[in-house]
């Protein structure tokens, strides 16, 4: 670390890449230019982020031929149709296999842009410049890219690792408070799955992180990225332990799908989903009730909801969870907590135990 800047390497052999974290890192040409393979880049961003940060990025890229594809904002635009507009623009310019694609935005922009980079002319280089907390600690790292299908979220995609990730903490100052909290759900996740000391650190510093105190927020992102990077390096294609990163997500995706996307933010759904996972972990005799209370308390202090929508029935959950990518041979694999700081992939819970958890949060 130097001057409050951290670099975390994602160790994937010859595809190893740095995550450069800290205030102002997007303004430093030497953080970006070495990863632009030739002199032409296509920036993919959206109509919310562009007025805030596009000029700054272009300034950093002075001397490079820059093209821009501007997307509409919103999860509903994370589609094949939107991807096609980027393909169209790449072909119109024209861009070739040496063009570097740069994703400037939150997880939606990053996921679509990464998907396009992975497909265009069988794969071009790309750089992630995540501008939400969630994308800085999660979606920009690890190479999962994709778009939604009307029958399921993230159902079409591929693994395509970026050349580098630039997580500039200054951009978080314009992020709506609710989006910041949603990102904290993923930060807290790293503490829960493998880092009890980090969970305790968050308990001590969550207000400072929410207030974007530079040292605290940079450290929280660095520690999150370090955990994510290690998990990805050990299991890039989610053959095993990478699934632990989905703590709360199977329940959370069911909540998002039942309510319709956009009612709750992804991170909010993950927080509520994690409370369901924590309840089931308690029923299995793993988590102590005090630990469940600590998790709920930290989420609440982070501005996150902890009570799932009560109108959702156990049957709703079971139907919606059955289409999750984590279902193997009809069995829903869940990520549960042995304790704070230790998660496990579990298939051998009983339906009665799962139903007891779901019923306890449903008013019907
Ligand atoms: P998002 O991309 O929709 O961004 C949230 C909102 O904040 C948008 O309106 C966006 O335009 C705006 N915004 C972004 N940066 C801003 C800034 N600095 N200032 C002001 N406004 C800003 O949402 P997200 O939470 O970043 O990402 C969610 C997406 O990420 C989902 O599609 C989810 O499936 C995906 N995701 C992917 C992975 C992965 O591994 N690839 C992991 C987690 C989530
Ligand atoms: N967000 C889960 C993963 O990247 O595997």
In short:
With 364 residues, this protein is α/β, with parallel strands linked by helices.
Explain the overall architecture.
This protein is an alpha/beta fold. The chain has 2 domains: 6-171, Rossmann fold (3-Layer(aba) Sandwich), CATH 3.40.50.1970; 177-360, Dehydroquinate synthase-like, alpha domain (Up-down Bundle). 45% of the residues lie in helices and 19% in strands. It has helices spanning 29-32, 50-60, 80-92, 107-119, 133-139, 177-194, 196-210, 214-234, 249-259, 266-283, 289-301, 314-321, 351-360; strands at 6-10, 17-22, 40-46, 65-71, 100-105, 126-130, 144-149, 152-159, 164-168, 327-328, 331-332, 334-339, 342-346. α6 (177-194) packs parallel to α10 (266-283). 49% of the residues are buried. The model has no long low-confidence stretch (mean pLDDT 95).
* CATH level-3 fold name of the largest domain: Dehydroquinate synthase-like, alpha domain
State the low-pLDDT regions, or none: none
List each distinct ligand once: nicotinamide-adenine-dinucleotide, glycine
Number of helices, counting only DSSP H or I runs of 4 residues or more: 13
Tell me the CATH architecture of the largest domain: Up-down Bundle
User: How many structural domains are formed by the residues?
Assistant: 2
Give the CATH level 1 class of the largest domain. Answer: Mainly Alpha
* Percentage of residues in strands: 15-25%
Mind telling me the C-alpha Rg? Answer: 20 Å
Spell the H/E element sequence. EEHEHEHEHEHEEEHHHHHHHEEEEH
Coarse morphology: globular
Q: Strands across the major sheet, in which order?
A: 1-2-9-6-5-3-4
Q: Could you give a short account of the major beta sheet? A: 7 strands, mixed
The CATH fourth-level homologous superfamily of the largest domain: Dehydroquinate synthase-like - alpha domain
Number of strands: 13
- Amount of helix: 40-55%
- What is the averaged pLDDT score? 95
Distance between the termini: 53 Å
Structural class: alpha/beta
């Amino acid at each position: 670390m130097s001057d409050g800047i951290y670099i975390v390497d994602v160790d994937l052999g010859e595809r190893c890449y740095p995550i450069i974290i800290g205030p102002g890192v997007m303004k430093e040409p030497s953080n970006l230019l070495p990863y632009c393979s030739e002199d032409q880049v296509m920036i993919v961003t959206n109509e919310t982020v562009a007025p805030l940060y596009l000029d700054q990025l272009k300034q950093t890229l002075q001397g490079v031929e820059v093209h821009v594809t501007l997307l509409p904002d919103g999860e509903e635009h994370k589609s094949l149709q939107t991807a096609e507009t980027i393909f169209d623009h790449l072909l119109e310019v024209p861009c070739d296999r040496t063009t570097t694609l740069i994703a400037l935005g939150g997880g939606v922009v990053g996921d679509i842009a990464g998907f396009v980079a992975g497909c265009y002319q069988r794969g071009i280089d790309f750089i992630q410049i995540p501008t939400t907390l969630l994308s800085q600690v999660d979606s920009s790292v690890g190479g999962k890219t994709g778009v939604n299908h009307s029958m399921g979220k993230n159902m079409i995609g591929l693994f395509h690792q970026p050349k580098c990730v630039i997580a500039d903490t200054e951009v978080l100052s314009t992020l709506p408070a609710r989006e910041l909290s949603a990102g904290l759900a993923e930060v807290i996740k790293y503490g829960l799955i493998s880092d009890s000391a980090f969970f305790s650190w968050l308990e001590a510093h969550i207000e400072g992180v929410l207030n974007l105190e530079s040292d605290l927020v940079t450290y929280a992102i660095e520690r999150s990225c370090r955990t994510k990077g290690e998990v990805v390096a050990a299991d890039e294609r989610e053959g095993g332990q990478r699934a632990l990163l989905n703590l709360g997500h199977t329940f959370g995706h069911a909540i998002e799908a039942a309510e319709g996307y956009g009612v709750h933010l992804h991170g909010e759904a993950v927080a509520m989903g994690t409370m369901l996972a924590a309840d089931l972990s308690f029923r299995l005799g793993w988590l102590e009730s005090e630990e469940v209370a600590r998790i709920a308390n930290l989420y609440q202090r982070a501005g996150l909801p902890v009570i799932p929508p009560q109108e959702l029935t156990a049957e709703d959950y079971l139907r919606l969870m059955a289409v999750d990518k984590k279902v193997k041979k009809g069995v829903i694999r869940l990520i549960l907590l042995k304790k704070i700081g230790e998660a496990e992939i579990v298939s051998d819970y009983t339906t009665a135990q799962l139903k007891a958890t779901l019923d306890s949060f449903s008013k019907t």
